[in-house]
Design goal:
3-stranded antiparallel sheet, 18 helices, globular, binds s-citryldethia Coenzyme A, transferase, Citrate_synthase_sf, Citrate synthase
């Protein structure tokens, strides 16, 4: 507001930040990672290759990718002491609450030996984070169902190893379905990074104070948990299950438009996209394919989702406000088809986004950065004296 406040040009410099990692054109529904369209990465790349691209800025050679993947495999186990950390939680604790705790606890293991000014140390932190998140996530699930933790298997690829740790048991041979592993890897890839979203901005701000990168990632997990952000994928499934029949869709569309009703159409709308979220398009295609391959094409929730999208995109309220499906709208249907419980949906998002959070932290600490200090427009009382 001009006049009432002196406008500090520094406001923009602390509020906005420069980055080379991801570009979003919200008007045209464009998402580029280091210049590569998300659609092409989803079609031709895999999660770990995309991790390398996000961190290093270029696609790896076969040799570089081989080394990257083997380094990730070398860090998949967590310190045995971390197992005890879980015992402090109730068995029914939300997995995101546990993830906030155990990922933050990683800083207790690496804080003293990590110098974030050293590029080699930062690279090892990347391997540790990318490698250990699936192990910790699967441990959250196993803890919640009272089954023993499964050690990672380094003969399996990244997504297959996660599914093995989630659903395998020591009692019998567990063979991962390659269709599910491929779908899981694509889910990870589509959630890897998304510019300066709320959780990434949280990680950057935490990192700007010089805090340990593991603690910064834990702050990103906390920010992601909200239903307006990463928690939306869990909320979408709960909404579809509440709708339960296509005949009830109009009732929920009207509720979403009612300002006196706090209900929002979960998985719709976006702070930046005022067009289709390109990830939602890829996710929908992947949904179709996975359900077909699994013989679940008549999945009732997927039918409700497709009908809901169709109705919403024809409704003036949504059209006028440019509300389109976002990344969370279809992801939950695929996760459910893979067998992931709804309570773990946001944990999957956090696992995948860890490389994005790390990449932005690494980009910032690799430069001559300053502590972030968002400015405010003060609208409170002017100076006044204490009565008496
Ligand atoms: C993610 O930032 C990122 O990049 C995030 C993310 C990432 O990869 O990191 O993309 C991941 O968080 C995706 C978003 C997931 N959240 C949801 O699906 C929750 C449902 N969506 C809404 O809560 C909402 O759309 C937000 C939070 C996503 C955006 O909120 P805004 O910025 O307030 O939305 P807006 O300014 O575009 O709203 C314009 C109008 C408003 O109504 P009016 O004041 O004009 O009358 O549209 C309404 C809003 O009330 N509106 C909705 C709605 N979303 C916005 N109405 C009904 N249902 C919705 N989903």
């Amino acid at each position: 507001q001009q006049g009432l406040f002196t406008y500090d040009p520094g406001f923009v410099s602390t509020a906005a930040c420069e980055s080379k990692i991801t570009f979003i054109d919200g008007t045209n529904g464009v998402l580029l990672h280091r210049g590569y369209p998300i659609e092409q990465l989803a079609q031709h790349s895999d999660y770990l290759e995309t991790c390398y691209l996000l961190i290093h800025g270029e696609l790896p050679s076969n040799e570089e990718l081989g080394h990257f993947k083997s380094m990730v495999k070398n860090h998949t186990m967590v310190h045995e002491q971390l197992n005890h950390f879980f015992n402090g939680f109730r068995r029914d604790a939300h997995p995101m609450a546990i993830m906030c705790g155990v990922v933050g606890a990683l800083s207790a293991f690496y804080h003293d030996t990590m110098d974030s000014t050293d590029e080699k140390h930062r690279e090892i932190a990347a391997f540790r984070l990318i490698a250990k998140m699936p192990t910790l996530a699967a441990m959250c699930y196993k803890y919640s169902i009272g089954q023993p933790f499964m050690y990672p298997r380094n003969d399996l690829d990244y997504a297959a190893n996660f599914l093995y740790m989630m659903f395998g048991t020591p009692c019998e041979e567990f063979v991962v379905n390659p269709i599910l592993a491929k779908a899981m890897d694509k889910i990870f890839l589509l959630h890897a990074d998304h510019e300066q979203n709320a959780s990434t901005s949280t990680v950057r701000l935490a990192g700007s104070s010089g805090a340990n990168v593991f603690a910064c990632i834990a702050s990103g997990i906390a920010a992601l948990w909200g239903p307006a952000h990463g928690g939306a994928n869990e909320a979408v499934l709960s909404m579809l299950m509440e709708i339960e029949d296509e005949s009830r869709i109009p009732e929920f569309i009207e509720r979403a438009k009612d300002k006196d009703d706090s209900f929002r159409l979960m998985g719709f709308g976006h702070r930046v996209y005022k067009n289709f979220d390109p990830r939602a398009k890829v996710m929908k295609e992947s949904c179709d394919q996975v359900l077909q391959e699994l013989g679940l094409e008549d999945d009732p929730l997927f039918k409700i989702a497709r009908r809901l999208e169709q109705i919403a995109l024809e409704d003036p309220y949504f059209v006028e406000r440019k509300l389109y499906p976002n990344v969370d709208f279809y992801s939950g249907i695929i996760l459910r088809a893979i067998g992931i419980p709804v309570s773990m949906f946001t944990v999957i998002f956090a696992m995948a986004r860890t490389v994005g959070w790390y990449s932005h932290w690494n980009e910032m600490v690799s430069t001559d950065y300053r502590i972030g200090r968002p400015r405010q427009l003060y609208t409170g009382h002017t100076k006044r004296d204490y009565p008496g």
